[in-house]
Amino acid sequence: MSVDIYWRIGTHGDQPSLRRRVVSRGEWAPVVEGSLAPGVRDGRRDDYSYVEHMGDVARASEVSGFVGGLLPSFPNTDDPWATAATLARETTTYRFMIAFQPGFLHPVQAARMSASLQRATGGRVVYNVISGGGGPDQLWWGDKVDHDDRYARTSEFLDVLRGVWDGGPFDFEGRFYRVEGAGLPQELTGQPFPEIYFSGSSKAAIDAAGRHADYYLSWLEPFHALAEKFDQVRANSDRTPKFAVRIDVVARETEEEAWDEIRRGWDNIDPTVLRGATGDSIGWQRSQSFVTGAITGHRDLEVTPNVWGGFHLLRGGPAFGLVGSYEQVAERLDELINLGVGAFILAGVPHLEEAYRVGENVLPLLRGHDLRIDSPLLEGTSS
Fold it and tell me: What are the domain boundaries of the chain?
C-alpha cells in the first residue's frame, strides 16, 4: 500500500513551542526582541521575512521525506494560492496542498489558476477542499449559506471545475453556478487534475466526498471512531475511497520526554477554555464528544494510548494528536495505515524544527508500507 505523508506549513506565524500559546515567528504578532522572521537586531527588524521562513519549512520537510505541505486558509493567514506560487521555486518535487473554500472563488477562475500553477510547477498542486465550519469565521468571509447547502455548493463547484478542465465548451446550470460555453484556453489544457482531499464529518460532507474525493480527509479521532466513519464513507462512495488523517505529533526519544512537553504547555493554559465548541462544524463537535468526565490533569485527555485530545488548548487547530516516543508514534501511524489510511498530514510546533525531528526519527520506523520517499535521508528505510 502506497502512503503519502505531508507536513503542515503554518501560514499565520508559528509558536516557539507548545509550552506557551504565543506567536513569535512572523508578523502575525508584534515583532519584538526574541521574535523570528523577522527578528530584531540592534533595535531594528532584520531582513529575514516570514515568507523566507515558510520556504525553510518547505525545504526542511522535503529533505526529511515529506511529499508536500498543507497550506491552511483562515481569515488570519496568508493566502495559500499566492503562497504556493511563491514557494514552488524553493523546492523540487514538493507538492502544495492548497486549502480553500469553494464559495469564495468561481470554479472557472479556480480552474484557470490551478492549471497555470500545474503548468508552472510540473503538476505539484493538490486541493484541500473545505466547506467551512460556520460561526464568526464563516461570516468574516461574508458567507451566510447554511451548513448542508455549503456542501451542495461545493459539489456544484467541483462539477464545473472538472467540466471546464479539458477545454470545453461546457454548459452548467445549478442552484449556485451557471456557465455557458466555459472552458480553459488551449494552452492550459492537458494538465493533471489536482488530487482532492475532501474534509467534513457530517452526512452532507460524506455524501459529497463520495462523489468527488480522491482522499477523504479527517481530523484524528479515537481509532474505533475513525473506522466507523470510514465505513460510512465507503457506503456512500461512487468509487473505492482512500483515506487521509490530519495529525499533530509530539514525538521524543522517550515517552516521558514527550508527555513532559505536554505537561509544560498544560501548566500555562487558561482553565476556562477546557470545554467549548464553535460554529456548526460537526468534526469539532465530534472531537469534543470523545472526552468525558472530569478533567483534572493533562493525562485525562488521553482517550486511548498516545492519542491525546488537548492540542487545541496549546495551539490553534484540531483537538486530537499523538504523543509518545518515536517508536510509539510510528506504531500508532502503522495502526492507522492498517485501518485503511493512505495519506497523512502531520504537524508539529515549531514547524521547522519538528519537520526534521519527525522526518528523521519517526518516518523511518514505519514498516511494511511503500512510502513515497524523495529524501536521501530515508532511502532504503521502508519496504
Answer: 4-254+324-369
Q: DSSP labels for 184-229?
A: --GGGTTPPPPEEEEE--SHHHHHHHHHH-SEEEEE---HHHHHHH
Cell 446550470, located at residue: 173
* Digit-coded pLDDT (tens) for 31-55: 988 899 999 988 899 999 999 999 9
- Give pTM, 2 decimals: 0.91
Instruction: Give yes or no for residue 63 having a pLDDT over 90.
Output: yes
Phi then psi for residue 300, to 5 deg, are -65, -15
Q: Output the furthest CA–CA distance in the chain (Å, rounded).
A: 62
Q: Alpha-carbon distance 10 to 87, whole Å?
A: 13
Q: Give me Rg for the CA atoms of the chain.
A: 21
342 three-class SS: strand
CA gap 377, 34 in Å, rounded: 31
Task: Render pLDDT for 166-186 as a digit per residue (tens, 0 to 9).
Answer: 898 999 999 999 999 999 999
Whole-angstrom CA distances from 142 to 36, 107, 283 are 33, 18, 22
Cβ–Cβ under 8 Å, residues 319 and 311: yes
CATH architecture assigned to 4-254+324-369: Alpha-Beta Barrel (3.20)
